[in-house]
């Protein structure tokens, strides 16, 4: 998707110019906004393929922009890559739970930013995996209908929670899931469980998967993802 249209919402001029320059160099079409209000207006009128969104914006901040766009049926399908100040883990978690697709912390390497954008655009092109669809990834086969996991053709015996956790992560490889999202997906909203309980389930799942356990990656301070 080298011709994709990307909207950059960033109030710091030097960072905005850096991002714009590197995106243009890669062949993308780029629009820019300096405020949350302007960013939401351009997102709705231009319908970009992806939004690079700074969280620290004057007026309406990036989290509110994300929340508003994900509630708008016109814009809810636009992928969002957040730009955050280093160490703002709470904002990263909040953004991901609002529906952002990925994040990158400042200061950042332009090459890393481009790679993250490419990965998100690739994921956007893929059809979402149906809830009951068989997932084949790396050496794993995950069959929701049979509640069965095969590793190199041999069955792996998982608990209900471990199976649902693996199915969730593997259904969207590369996608970062927060612990809160994992709990909601597995047990439903308002299920009383701690972050620590999710971590314990991941440890047990990795152990049962043996060498394939390495595909479940910890995103420090945020949650987990399945390596694509």
List its traits.
Rossmann fold; 4-stranded antiparallel β-sheet; 42% helix; 5-stranded parallel β-sheet; Arc Repressor Mutant, subunit A; 2 domains; 228 residues; alpha/beta; 8 helices
SSE pattern: EHEHEHEHEHEEEEHEHHEE
Largest sheet: 5 strands, parallel
The CATH class designation of the largest domain is Alpha Beta
What is the number of beta strands? 12
Average pLDDT works out at 88
Instruction: Could you tell me the CATH topology label of the largest domain.
Output: Rossmann fold
Distance between the termini: 18 Å
Helical content stands at 40-55%
What is the count of DSSP helices, taking H or I runs of 4+ residues?
8
SS-derived structural category: alpha/beta
What best-fitting shape do the alpha-carbon axes yield? elongated
CATH superfamily of the largest domain: Response regulator
Count of spatially separate domains:
2
Lateral arrangement of strands in the main beta sheet: 2-1-3-4-5
Architecture overview:
- This protein is α/β, with parallel strands linked by helices.
- The chain has two domains: 5-125, Response regulator (Rossmann fold, 3-Layer(aba) Sandwich), CATH 3.40.50.2300; 135-226, Winged helix-like DNA-binding domain superfamily/Winged helix DNA-binding domain (Arc Repressor Mutant, subunit A, Orthogonal Bundle).
- The protein contains eight helices and twelve strands.
- A five-stranded parallel β-sheet has the order 2-1-3-4-5, with helices on both faces.
- The protein is elongated, with a radius of gyration of 19 Å.
- The two termini are 18 Å apart.
